[in-house]
Specification:
The chain is mostly beta strands. The protein is 14% helix and 46% strand. It contains two helices and ten strands, in the order ββββββββββαα. The longest helix has 11 residues. The chain is globular.
Length: 113
């Protein structure tokens, strides 16, 4: 799903206990993501700087960060290729955005239980 100019969100799997997404950003717009539960952020690409209300952290390739829910928001300047794992609200975080992007119920069901 396109999120912003050059920012793309792909839902890889989603179920009642875990969702995994891949976010990619070019250089036109930063990757900005709000969250309400703890999140595991893993870097699948070149090193990036992650900015949250709690500060800034450099994340090298293949490194991960555990982001507490209290932070609520992250920002990464591109280029970036990251994985986000979290406990989803299936309706708000997964179904509604995918339906709005034109994906059908069968495709959404195929993401997980």
């Amino acid at each position: 799903m396109p999120v912003d100019d050059g920012v793309e969100r792909t839902v890889l799997c989603a179920g009642p206990y875990f969702a995994l997404e891949r976010w990619r950003a070019g250089t036109a717009a930063p990757l900005v993501c709000g969250f309400a539960t703890a999140m595991v952020l893993s870097n699948a690409g070149a090193p990036v700087t992650v900015t949250t209300p709690g500060g800034r952290e450099r994340l090298a390739r293949a490194e991960s960060l555990l982001l507490p829910a209290a932070l609520g928001r992250l920002r990464i300047e591109g280029p970036a290729d990251v994985l986000l794992g979290y406990l989803p609200d299936l309706d708000a975080d997964i179904r509604a955005p995918l339906l709005a992007a034109g994906h059908g119920p069968a495709a959404i069901t195929a993401l997980g239980a």
